[in-house]
Amino acid sequence: MSRVAAIDCGTNSIRLLVADLPPDGVGDLTDVDRRMEIVRLGQGVDRTGRLAPEAIERTRVALAGYAARIRELGAERVRMVATSATRDASNAEDFRSMVRATLGAEPEVISGRQEAELSFTGAVRGLPLGRYLVVDIGGGSTEFVSGATGVENAISVDIGCVRMTERHLTADPPAPEQIEAATADIEAAVDKALAVVGGAEGVTLVGVAGTVTTITAIALGLTEYRPDLIHHARVSTVDIERVAAELLAMEHSRRLAVPVMHPGRADVIGAGGLILRTILRRTGVTELVASEHDILDGIAWSQAA
């Protein structure tokens, strides 16, 4: 086995996976350590087009801890990717310089297509053979990718829980007219994406990332966050509609009190639920399969020799 480290730096969170790859790529990853910090790197990027200095500093602090853990666990290879917020920022070089100094490795600012492909790889391993549509709801963008044994069609669109919150859902709780404006933005982006990936007819819809797994945990009635119960859980569209509506109607303080809610996600989960609800409505599916495996696992698998 070879030990690798994968880092996914998105608009809202930065995550680390240290894992052992199976010999010859046959079998499953063996997790050694999996961590997540909410750093909100994409703070204000939709409005300013730049990464805020304080957001870069929050990310540096988290990354320094990850770098120490990677050394401690003896990972042989490290791959770090950065996604939507860094693609959009005019001062992305400030971020890259910070990463080189902190991690000793170059961050890869990947395209939306590459992000979609890595998400698909991570999400469908371990699922039965079939046709899948994977949706990855991030902070700044959402990826749609379809295929069976491999990626066939993929697109990234600029709707994410942080971006939609900052652009539209500024009241607490959001006002009806704000929800209406956000929904119009989201519907246009989802329809564009589905035209590329071919819709959801005859496929299983798989959802990944924090919005999906948190809403799944709430729909399942969990009193603590349990990845083992969330992974590959099937959640009905009816239950997701209910949870999304409840989250949109809550004040921030009530969302913070939800037992499975990460504190750094409470202010943007309403927008995430709105995105997920819109995807389900536009695809017409009756259920969603939630996956705890996503782009982070895809990054790890990409380092297989």
UniProtKB/TrEMBL annotation:
CDD domains hit by this protein: ASKHA_NBD_MtPPX2-like
Ppx/GppA phosphatase N-terminal domain boundaries: 28-282
Coiled-coil positions: none
Pfam families, per database record: Ppx-GppA
SUPFAM superfamilies according to UniProt: Actin-like ATPase domain
UniProt protein name: Ppx/GppA phosphatase family protein
Organism: Rugosimonospora acidiphila
